[in-house]
Amino acid sequence: MNKKVLTLSAVMASMLFGAAAHAADTRIGVTIYKYDDNFMSVVRKAIEQDAKAAPDVQLLMNDSQNDQSKQNDQIDVLLAKGVKALAINLVDPAAAGTVIEKARGQNCRWFSSTKNRLVRRWIATTKPTTLARFQRVRHYSGRFDC
């Protein structure tokens, strides 16, 4: 399972860097539920290495310290700083709706993953010419209610 999650993280990082690589000053915001987590420490280091390889990318990393309200505040600050993309490792998977609403009005691409492998993973893309389009991505075997 760790290989799958690490691969997912690598795809996430490359998607974020690739989607915004054309900007001269591209800011990417990352919030991780807890830096102390061994696996998330590996993911964080991999994201930081990828960001160093892209000179036009400014990476804004945040440790949410396993506190969802702190993570919500961090997301607000990142959006206020004008990040082009967000990578969010949710503290509480039930807060996905709140996080989606925060980014919905912004011209910001984002990816969210959770520490619980059975929880839905959401991808949302907001374009300036259209409303936000949401896609649910099935992770493992899961049934989604509409």
From TrEMBL:
<keyword id="KW-0732">Signal</keyword>
<dbReference type="InterPro" id="IPR028082">
    <property type="entry name" value="Peripla_BP_I"/>
</dbReference>
<feature type="domain" description="Periplasmic binding protein">
    <location>
        <begin position="28"/>
        <end position="106"/>
    </location>
</feature>
<keyword id="KW-0762">Sugar transport</keyword>
<feature type="signal peptide">
    <location>
        <begin position="1"/>
        <end position="23"/>
    </location>
</feature>
<dbReference type="GO" id="GO:0055085">
    <property type="term" value="P:transmembrane transport"/>
</dbReference>
<dbReference type="Pfam" id="PF13407">
    <property type="entry name" value="Peripla_BP_4"/>
</dbReference>
<comment type="similarity">
    <text>Belongs to the bacterial solute-binding protein 2 family.</text>
</comment>
<dbReference type="InterPro" id="IPR050555">
    <property type="entry name" value="Bact_Solute-Bind_Prot2"/>
</dbReference>
<keyword id="KW-0813">Transport</keyword>
<dbReference type="GO" id="GO:0030246">
    <property type="term" value="F:carbohydrate binding"/>
</dbReference>
<protein>
    <submittedName>
        <fullName>D-galactose ABC transporter, substrate-binding protein</fullName>
    </submittedName>
</protein>
<dbReference type="InterPro" id="IPR025997">
    <property type="entry name" value="SBP_2_dom"/>
</dbReference>
<dbReference type="GO" id="GO:0030288">
    <property type="term" value="C:outer membrane-bounded periplasmic space"/>
</dbReference>
